[in-house]
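Collaborator request, handled under Task 6.
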Amino acid sequence: KGLVVVLAGYKKEMEEMFTRNAGLKSRFNHYFDFPDWSINDCVSHVVAMAEKAGFESLSLACRGILLKGFKNLILLPGWANGRDVVHVWEEIQRKRATRVYDLPVGLKREVEMSDIEKAFQEVLSSRGEKEEK
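Structure tokens returned to the collaborator:
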């Protein structure tokens, strides 16, 4: 009495687990289903992380590249919602850091389109995919 057990995972994998063990399925009969993030959710989260990190607001062109990149990424096997969005943001920061390394101190804290494009190239190629042109 008073014990709560939480199992979390992706819907397909959870259903496979319960299918393999009928007794387990009968013991877990309350479910919360969280829908996958939309492309707009992904872009909004990157924009929020950029602003929180003190970067200037991302341009409409940058947001367009994010939309295109997430459109491709979401379709790949293993899409991990927020975890992948954070991974893309971290890759954007790495690409930006490489770009500005030799530039003068005091540079505006802004992300450029090339930072985002290169980040998606990296993320997509790590998944064995080429970026859609």
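The cover message to the collaborator said: "DSSP finds six helices and no strands in the chain. The chain has a mean pLDDT of 90. Please let us know whether this matches your experimental observations."
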